[in-house]
Amino acid sequence: MFSLKIDKIIKHSETISTLFFNSRLKSYPGQFIMLNLPEYEEIPLSLSSPYSVTVKAVGETTEALIKIKAGERVGIRGPFGRPFSFTDKKALLVAGGIGAAPLYYLHDYLSARGADVTVLFGARTSDELVWKDKFLNAEFSTDDGSEGFKGNVVELMKEKDLTNYDRIYVCGPEAMIKGAFYHLKEENLLDITEFSLERYMRCGIGLCGSCVLEDGSRVCADGPVFSGEDLDGWI
Ligand SMILES: Cc1cc2nc3c(=O)[nH]c(=O)nc-3n(C[C@H](O)[C@H](O)[C@H](O)COP(=O)(O)OP(=O)(O)OC[C@H]3O[C@@H](n4cnc5c(N)ncnc54)[C@H](O)[C@@H]3O)c2cc1C
Ligand code: FES
């Protein structure tokens, strides 16, 4: 484990903040770190850029993390895990809630390498549409209709012609992953789709077994990014 200083914090809403480190992490979009705050449980967080994480407060550690001050230090292991694959052609990014964090990194990475990137980003309310102004070509959905399409991001995705994309990338809560998976399966597009999954993690490196999926693979070491074909048959 090593430690990094928090250089800057952007507070997006009451419950969501981005923490910027004083140093860039050698990483790829889709990878995660195990972050350690003294006296709290170590937790997995996706990188939202090579030098940041974007955190939503849902429990003890994440509540403490969004209250951290610039200048404080955090412990880090990683980056770990299988990243998203690369395309320099047409990419569709489908993000639900805080699932936008790794896709924000992917958006910048692919755009910088010449890909034509479209984003569909859904959240409960417009407050939770983190980074929405930074996506170059994006459509939004909110459950309460406070911004964009009224409904969830899978419903928005069902309105689109998905056949002219080279790669589709999906990240969000479990119910959204399942909804997207079944639609993309029906459309015969699982072979070009990747999903980033979350499970409870302890070691982060494939040893403890706490993140094992129904098919026996480990989210930390075999994922967190899985192809649509990897998930077919058990999700
Ligand atoms: C690979 C990976 C990447 C992640 N990236 C991010 C990210 O970029 N930003 C972010 O805010 N969060 C991310 N998470 C989720 C984050 O790790 C959890 O929110 C955090 O561990 C909760 O810790 P806590 O002590 O605050 O809450 P706890 O008290 O431990 O849990 C609060 C609630 O969240 C649920 N929960 C805890 N851990 C998970 C989990 N791994 N998956 C689903 N539900 C969980 C619990 O069941 C409980 O209902 C990621 C998780 C994984 C596995
Ligand atoms: S977190 Fe220990 S095996 Fe994945």
Mind explaining what this structure looks like?
The chain is globular and about 45 Å long. The longest helix has 13 residues, at 100-112. 20% of the residues lie in helices and 32% in strands. The protein is an alpha/beta fold and 235 residues long. It has two domains: 2-80, Translation factors (Elongation Factor Tu (Ef-tu), domain 3, Beta Barrel); 90-196, 3-Layer(aba) Sandwich (Rossmann fold), CATH 3.40.50.80. The mean pLDDT is 96. The structure holds flavin-adenine dinucleotide and FE2/S2 (inorganic) cluster (FES). FE2/S2 (inorganic) cluster is lined by residues 201-204, 206-211, 218, 220.
CATH topology call of the largest domain: Rossmann fold
Largest sheet: 7 strands, mixed
Q: What is the distance, rounded to the nearest whole angstrom, between the alpha carbons of the first and last residues?
A: 34 Å
CATH architecture of the largest domain: 3-Layer(aba) Sandwich
Cofactors and ligands = flavin-adenine dinucleotide, FE2/S2 (inorganic) cluster
Helical coverage, percent range: 10-25%
Order of strands side by side in the largest beta sheet?
A: 10-9-8-7-11-12-13
Query: Could you give the order of the helices and strands?
Result: EEEEEHEEHEEEHEHEHEH
User: What structural class do you assign from the helix and strand content?
Assistant: alpha/beta
- Classified in CATH, the superfamily of the largest domain is Nucleotide-binding domain of ferredoxin-NADP reductase (FNR) module
Strand content: 25-35%
When the domains are counted, the total is 2
Query: What's the Cα radius of gyration?
Result: 17 Å
Global geometry: globular
Q: What is the CATH C level class of the largest domain, in words?
A: Alpha Beta
Q: Give the low-confidence spans.
A: none
Q: What is the tally of beta strands?
A: 13
Integer average pLDDT: 96
